[in-house]
Amino acid sequence: MSSTIDLAVIPGDGIGPEVTTEALAVLHSAVGGGVAIAETHYSLGAEHYLETGEILHDETMERLARHDAILFGAVGGDPRDARLAGGLIERGLLLRLRFAFDHYVNLRPTRLFPGVTSPLSSPGEVDFVVVREGTEGPYVGNGGSIRVGTPHEIANEVSVNTAFGVERVVRFGFAQAAARSCRLTLVHKTNVLVNAGSLWQRTVDRIAPEFPGVNVDYLHVDAATIFLVTDPARFDVIVTDNLFGDILTDLAGAISGGIGLAASGNINPDRAFPSMFEPVHGSAPDIAGQQKADPTAAILSAALLLEHLGHPEAATRITTAVAADLAGRGSERRSTREVGAAILAAVER
Amino acid sequence: MSSTIDLAVIPGDGIGPEVTTEALAVLHSAVGGGVAIAETHYSLGAEHYLETGEILHDETMERLARHDAILFGAVGGDPRDARLAGGLIERGLLLRLRFAFDHYVNLRPTRLFPGVTSPLSSPGEVDFVVVREGTEGPYVGNGGSIRVGTPHEIANEVSVNTAFGVERVVRFGFAQAAARSCRLTLVHKTNVLVNAGSLWQRTVDRIAPEFPGVNVDYLHVDAATIFLVTDPARFDVIVTDNLFGDILTDLAGAISGGIGLAASGNINPDRAFPSMFEPVHGSAPDIAGQQKADPTAAILSAALLLEHLGHPEAATRITTAVAADLAGRGSERRSTREVGAAILAAVER
Ligand SMILES: CC(C)[C@H](C(=O)O)[C@@H](O)C(=O)O
Ligand SMILES: CC(C)[C@H](C(=O)O)[C@@H](O)C(=O)O
């Protein structure tokens, strides 16, 4: 365990910088005196692109690759800005990092903390983890169009799924389940997406005997959304494809108090590249710079970062502080800074 | 307007026959003396396949094609039965009918009826329609696998989207919105699925000026799931791709009282082929034959059928009767037959 964390910070656009500031303050406090954190800030995102023309240079990638981990705020500009159309920044920056740094596990814990209001009238105990595949599926960018703009336009999207890619994330899902409540749910759409679905199902079936204590079940993605609102307590670990995971984790965030609380880790478990930790929410340009954003998701992402880097006690200090703050949140609105300061104070107690 | 409806009935598997029986009784009563309904029952589904080896013969298709409409129960056998794996019946029967009969509009109204409990604590007014594309997207079955069962397996799924296919369903969505509360929401994932997403977005933008009274907005599919649980009242008409529509409508069913109430129409608006009406729920083999299923979704599907065939008053008689029954439902459990009889009695009043 190194005594210095060499951290890359990408605050990004919109509310990204605001929430990242709070996450960094909490991070420093949580690791305490024994561990130093060396921060290198990278100016990247929609704003940076519009100013400089850079989305992500190869040299920047090389520099990022040398850090221990990346703390990521949020990227994305005005959704109506034509210069950014088609997810230019999301794909050129966020997805490029996930793919280049082989973040094949997109880990998204969902927990309804005591004191947090769910839009569900009786949510029950919500405490599960979505293990979303991060480097395959419909995210590979292998589609294409012909005859664009004509009445004969054809636009294809290709979902690519490999035995290599599915096996490693399924194995990670089983390991998570074994370390939690031993229930793994594969979510896919095997009755329609028969090629990919069959690969996922066979992979789960093949690996299951290696984890005899883990109970395995399967849900179609459509049915999974039903259970997320009628019986979220049924879930412990969900393992799923990149796109299904994207959809399910926004819904999971919503039922557990909003994506202002939802943290995520883009993880390379092999440690070949730095992993990257980010709130599930976006850059929310409409409320940027107004101290309105909830920094909790960014702060919890910092806890995932510490967990990943081998500082579980420091991670627990953060989640405990967040839980304490959430338990006491009333209806009064606090600024980003106030929420950050309250959690920081709880960490320091 | 013909005075005889030449109806094909596919009761199917599991709870399909039970709910279809109730829907037919209500259908006959709702049309009254002026319209005769000639029913032709087709034995199709998982059970029929396991007995006879037929999923759907070409001659059966030709006979089905000659009817005015199809009332469909539910198909699908025991999910663990290996002889039915990979959605054999769903694809060979249900999807084959949707594709062959060019059901390019999969119409799925969502309404939280007074008296019905939602899992959301404050759902607000839920009354929207999902116009799901029915003949393209990842449902086309154009994927494939190589090196199956080896560590080098690659499984691809291809989503095919055409200007022709997108335009006609988008136009239908606009027309629906114009006839309702004039709000159309395109749901897609334009920041990742850039080829298909761009086609959908450009098509909506191009057709919008033809419907100047309709307000248009856009949501990524992940964000749409959030709004479905935090502010479903924001929706009037959603137009979306086949797979996103599949996912969103199960969630929509769940927030509006369960898919036991969710009706759907697989519609060919050009009337080149018979349209097909079915509950969104499946065959639920676990409760089949026990009179436990709620026939309401099947009954509301019959109302959509009447609407489509030009009998709006008869359709309204059914929805009014359903609303009356739902408003008075207590906590006591009624059998499929009892619910059907209660709605039938309300139609006859
Ligand atoms: C911004 C977008 C590309 C991204 C995704 O689709 O993965 C986001 O929705 C997420 O979930 O992290
Ligand atoms: C059974 C299945 C193929 C079908 C679909 O995915 O369309 C069902 O989920 C539905 O929504 O009608």
TrEMBL record, chains A, B:
Gene3D superfamilies: Isopropylmalate Dehydrogenase (3.40.718.10). The record marks Y139, K189 as: Important for catalysis. GO terms for biological process: L-leucine biosynthetic process. Its cofactor is Mg(2+); Mn(2+). Pfam families: Iso_dh. SUPFAM superfamilies: Isocitrate/Isopropylmalate dehydrogenase-like (SSF53659). Keywords: Amino-acid biosynthesis, Branched-chain amino acid biosynthesis, Cytoplasm, Leucine biosynthesis, Magnesium, Manganese, Metal-binding, NAD, Oxidoreductase. Residues 4-343 form the Isopropylmalate dehydrogenase-like domain. Its EC number is 1.1.1.85. Pathway: Amino-acid biosynthesis; L-leucine biosynthesis; L-leucine from 3-methyl-2-oxobutanoate: step 3/4. It is found in: Cytoplasm. InterPro entries: ICDH/IPMDH, IsoCit/isopropylmalate_DH_CS, IsoPropMal-DH-like_dom, LeuB_actb. One of its GO terms (cellular component) is cytoplasm. The keyword Metal-binding applies. Mg(2+) binds at D222, D246, D250. NAD(+) binds at G282, S283, A284, P285, D286, I287, A288, G289, Q290, Q291, K292, A293, D294. It catalyses: (2R,3S)-3-isopropylmalate + NAD(+) = 4-methyl-2-oxopentanoate + CO2 + NADH. Catalyzes the oxidation of 3-carboxy-2-hydroxy-4-methylpentanoate (3-isopropylmalate) to 3-carboxy-4-methyl-2-oxopentanoate. The product decarboxylates to 4-methyl-2 oxopentanoate. Homodimer. Belongs to the isocitrate and isopropylmalate dehydrogenases family. LeuB type 2 subfamily. HAMAP family: LeuB_type2. This is 3-isopropylmalate dehydrogenase. It comes from Microcella alkalica. The gene is leuB.
